[in-house]
């Protein structure tokens, strides 16, 4: 392949042993797949190809290996192919010439040999020994012919990816795409499909400069790998048109003569200089998928100029790519296959919602439909285009899993979605207006996610910190982005430039004990508490503070009229349905009361103002994502106990009990020293998943991750490629 440079070993190990292992395990545990014809292989690409009238296949003078992104598919995964640089077919005379074309009866030809009116003689470019004795018969009777071939090359049949349903090549390469972005962590492409158009090969590239072995970064990287695998498996504008009905027939009707062509397919060109619609030599292809898969909507001021439900494309379909322009698409496009429709209505709690909105602004301004959910309504969801800093960890919704179900390629276990909490997980149960209306209209936000002026601050959705409003004023904005009377808009195109709370103040993190109080950093008038158990609440609570050496700092009531986001400690009940709220009192804490419902007001004797309660679910729920745990996502219940032995140089051991992970329910129950070099560790789990022993494995260049123990119908093998051009 290409010149090899050693990857940073710790990054290789991170990606191979943890990141991809868990991402693969997650999808393998969630999905069942309709089996592809096995083993998985791709076709070599012929060059200099032509076809005689009697040929069914193309004859080619050369061949190339297919690529997947920048990766050339290794021979092992390719089907056999024969190419010949010299090819010569029949020539005719006399009675074999009918209507200016040669009609040979191969049966007669074989009988009469050179006496027949068809003959093979060396001609320019033909093999010199071209004769019936050396020629290859193609077909028979009048439909057949004899063909001579010379200087041929036979590429052998590769063994393919055996026993796998998807084969993914993983690279850690500082590619051009990586170098062109400060934030790109990984990207993926799929290549090659099975007999039902399901993708069977893919490449994922991780940008090395964005990879980190820091434990804090791990979940985000795993989420990214799960996201990229979803692109390879199903979630792509290249795949939507290939979705199948439950009986395996294509959702979009195919051409009767060539099933690779779609009904209503057009090709178009698109570049920075403009687009040319219905160009048969175009660099892009498009199928009008509505009404079965997608629909377009004119809402929030958009006026769809794209060919969805129409036969023409207007230039307005595409937006000018990149700064300094505001990216201004013309369409709102939604995915509306049955399971997606049902789940997205439930997600937003909007029974009339017509589908799940796709992102309409991405890096490439030439796409008519895109390969992510709309960031404005699905921020932090797995298939949103960008991870959302300071909002909440990436989560997997049932809406994304529904896309797998509706592809017709997979059965998806929708209960493998992450548990969601209204108010915490962006958009969840936020209603029809949130899903369809402008995020901010006339200066009024549609929900507490959004804001309208620079000096606004609020609690983060997960209530662990205080966030500021990300907004800037422009001289003028297009009507669709007219959110405030003073032309305030957010900075992110993917959010439709919606101003929202995302500016983090490093000294206003409730869970960080080094944070400082408001409105004055030196006097804790609002009785704030910063601790691991602190959460953010809107409050006007205030009290005078005694001064050292006598006297008090006066908390003036007029300074505490408006709610501020402040931090107080919470103690949740075991059922999570209420929590006690504690505020600072001198160097200690004092309970204010119990919050059991949203917007309940608490007061404190001797202090002015009130604290507004948050819904107990927002404060007391475990908000960690499950999908990062690989196949250990399942909810806790009784599980097996596993023991394994490890080697230690310790001379004595103490029995202990440690919970390794509350979420996966894995508990280290015993630690037994036997002798001086062997210790037995006993693990028990309350999760349904089977515990597997983890051990250090020697890594081999093409190591298929062992998927044993999982349903055979959902095996995904991952191969990490080391031999690549540049490793950082
Ligand atoms: Zn993506």
Structure, described:
There is one protein chain. The chain is of the alpha+beta class and about 725 residues long. Among the domains are: about 140 residues, Elastase, domain 1; about 120 residues, no CATH class; about 70 residues, Leishmanolysin, domain 3; about 90 residues, Leishmanolysin, domain 4 (Roll), CATH 2.30.34; about 55 residues, no CATH class. The protein contains nine helices and 42 strands. Strands 14-15-13-42 form a four-stranded mixed sheet, with helices on one face. A four-stranded antiparallel sheet has the order 30-33-34-35. It has a four-stranded antiparallel sheet with strand order 38-41-40-39, with no helix packed on it. A hairpin with a 2-residue loop joins strand 34 and strand 35. Helix 1 packs across helix 4 and helix 5 packs antiparallel against helix 7. The chain is elongated, with a radius of gyration of 32 Å. About 40% of the residues are buried. The N terminus and C terminus are likely disordered. The structure holds zinc ion (ZN). Zinc ion binds next to helix 4.
Helical residue percent band: 10-25%
| Rough outline | elongated
Distance between the termini: 18 Å
CATH architecture of the domain at 1-40 and 162-234 and 703-728: Roll
Task: Give the C-level CATH assignment of the domain at 1-40 and 162-234 and 703-728.
Answer: Alpha Beta
- Number of helical elements: 9
Major beta sheet summary: 4 strands, mixed
């Amino acid at each position: 392949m290409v010149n090899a440079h050693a990857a940073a070993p710790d990054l290789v190990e991170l990606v191979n042993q943890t990141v991809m292992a868990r991402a693969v395990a997650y999808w393998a545990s969630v999905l069942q797949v309709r089996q592809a014809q096995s083993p998985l292989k791709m076709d070599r690409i012929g060059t200099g190809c032509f076809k005689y009238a009697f040929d069914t296949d193309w004859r080619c003078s050369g061949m190339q290996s297919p690529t997947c992104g920048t990766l050339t598919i290794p021979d092992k995964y390719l089907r056999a192919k024969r190419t010949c640089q010299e090819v010569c077919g029949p020539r005719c005379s006399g009675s074999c010439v009918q209507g200016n074309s040669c009609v040979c009866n191969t049966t007669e030809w074989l009988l009469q040999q050179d006496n027949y009116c068809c003959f093979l003689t060396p001609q320019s470019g033909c093999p010199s020994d071209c004769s019936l004795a050396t020629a290859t018969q193609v077909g028979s009777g009048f439909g057949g012919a004899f063909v001579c071939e010379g200087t041929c090359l036979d590429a052998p049949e590769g063994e393919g990816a055996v026993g796998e349903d998807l084969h993914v090549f993983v690279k850690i390469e500082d590619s051009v795409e990586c170098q062109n972005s400060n934030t790109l962590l990984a990207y993926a492409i799929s290549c090659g499909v099975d007999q039902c158009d399901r993708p069977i090969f893919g490449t994922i590239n991780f940008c090395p400069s964005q990879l980190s072995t820091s434990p804090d970064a791990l979940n985000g990287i795993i989420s990214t790998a799960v996201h990229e695998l979803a692109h390879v498996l199903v979630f792509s504008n290249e795949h939507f048109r290939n979705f199948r009905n439950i009986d395996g027939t294509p959702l979009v009707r195919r051409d009767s003569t060539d099933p690779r062509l779609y009904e209503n397919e057009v090709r178009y060109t698109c570049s920075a200089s403009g687009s040319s619609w219905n160009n048969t030599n175009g660099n892009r292809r498009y199928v009008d998928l509505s009404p079965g898969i997608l629909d377009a909507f004119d809402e929030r001021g958009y006026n769809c100029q794209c060919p969805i439900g129409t036969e023409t494309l207007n230039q307005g379909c595409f937006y000018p790519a990149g700064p300094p322009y505001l990216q201004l698409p013309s369409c709102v496009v939604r995915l509306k296959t049955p399971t997606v429709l049902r789940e997205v209505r439930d997600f937003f709690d909007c029974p009339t919602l017509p589908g799940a909105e796709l992102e309409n602004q991405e890096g490439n301004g030439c796409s008519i439909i895109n390969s992510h959910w709309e960031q404005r309504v699905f921020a932090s969801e797995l298939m949103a285009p960008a991870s959302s800093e300071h909002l909440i960890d990436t989560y997997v919704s049932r809406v994304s899993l529904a896309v797998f179900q509706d592809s017709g390629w997979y059965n998806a276990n929708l209960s493998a979605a992450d548990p969601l909490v209204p108010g915490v997980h962006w958009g969840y149960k936020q209603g029809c207006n949130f899903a369809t209306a402008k995020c901010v209209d006339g200066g009024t936000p549609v929900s507490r996610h959004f804001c309208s002026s620079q000096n606004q601050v609020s609690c983060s959705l997960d209530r662990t910190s205080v966030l500021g409003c990300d907004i800037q004023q422009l001289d003028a904005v297009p009507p669709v982005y007219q959110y405030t009377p003073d032309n305030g808009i957010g900075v992110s195109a993917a959010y439709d430039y919606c101003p929202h709370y995302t500016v983090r103040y490093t000294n206003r993190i409730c869970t960080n004990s080094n944070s400082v109080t408001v409105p004055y950093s030196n006097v804790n008038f609002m009785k704030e508490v910063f601790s691991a158990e602190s959460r953010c609440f809107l409050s006007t609570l205030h009290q005078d503070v005694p001064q050292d050496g006598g006297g008090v700092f006066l908390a003036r009531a007029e300074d505490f009229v408006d709610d501020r986001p402040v931090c107080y400690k919470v103690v949740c009940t075991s059922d999570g349905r209420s929590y006690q709220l504690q505020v600072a009192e001198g160097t200690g804490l004092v309970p204010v009361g119990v919050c059991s419902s949203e917007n309940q007001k608490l007061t404190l004797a001797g202090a002015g103002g009130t604290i507004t309660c948050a819904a107990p679910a927002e404060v007391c729920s475990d908000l960690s994502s499950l999908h990062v745990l690989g196949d250990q996502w399942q909810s806790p219940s009784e599980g097996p106990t596993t023991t394994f032995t490890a080697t230690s140089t310790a001379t004595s051991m103490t029995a202990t009990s440690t919970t390794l992970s509350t979420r996966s329910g894995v508990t280290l129950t015993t630690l037994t020293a036997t002798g001086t070099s062997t210790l037995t560790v006993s693990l028990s789990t309350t999760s349904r998943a089977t515990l597997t022993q983890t051990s250090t494995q020697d890594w081999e260049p093409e190591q298929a991750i062992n998927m044993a123990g999982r349903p055979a119908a959902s095996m995904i093998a991952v191969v990490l490629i080391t031999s690549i051009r540049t490793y950082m």
